[in-house]
Design goal:
The chain is an alpha/beta fold. The chain contains 6 helices and 5 strands; from the N terminus they run βαβαβαβαβαα. The chain is globular, with a radius of gyration of 15 Å. The chain binds 4'-phosphopantetheine.
């Protein structure tokens, strides 16, 4: 039986750490959807949901992984239920991620006990990497090559030029 999994996030923007996690998740769950939240409740995004989804699709292009990318609204568990997904994938980079992830996983399980969260660790080279720091470095004219796909690098630079 094929188990459906979703990998949700804000992805503002998608980093090489996210891509590494998508590859790892796809090895275990061949029906994988990357789910981009339309509204990030706790942060302001520099990219719209459509742009964030598009950058994921374009970053995955070279890998030729048949992974779906969708935008979702509202509660994650409602979206997962609608898609008949049983697994939520989340990345754990460091201990500092744990507290938030633990709360979210248990609250999501409380909201829907059929859905389990599976945590994957990225390659150790990406444990320091976050979208927030990529945005900050790019916004201050720093070098983000190697941290994101070159397509993302070009788009983020365009954004900051227009600010
Ligand atoms: O990449 P992020 O910002 O860490 O992803 C967080 C995300 C989008 C997975 C989380 O904020 C989420 O699930 N948002 C949808 C609303 C929801 O279900 N909130 C309740 C979580 S317990």
């Amino acid at each position: 039986m094929i188990i459906k999994a979703i990998y949700p996030g804000t992805f503002d923007p998608v980093t090489n750490g996210h891509i590494d996690l998508i590859r790892r998740a796809y090895r275990k769950f061949e029906d994988l959807t990357v789910a981009v939240t339309e509204k990030a409740t706790h942060k302001d995004c520099i990219f719209s949901a459509e742009e964030r989804a598009d950058l994921i699709i374009r970053s995955l292009d070279d890998l030729k992984l048949p992974v779906k990318v969708e935008i979702f609204k509202g509660l994650l568990v409602h979206y997962a239920r609608d898609r008949k997904a049983e697994i939520i994938i989340r990345g754990l980079r460091q201990l500092s991620d744990f507290e938030f992830e633990f709360a979210m996983a248990l609250l999501n399980r409380r909201l829907d006990s059929n859905i389990e969260t599976v945590f994957l660790m990225p390659n150790v080279n990406y444990t320091f990497l976050s979208s927030r720091l990529v945005r900050e470095i790019a916004g201050l004219n720093g070098d983000i090559s190697g941290l994101v796909h070159p397509i993302v690098e070009a788009e983020i630079m365009k954004k900051f030029k227009n600010v």
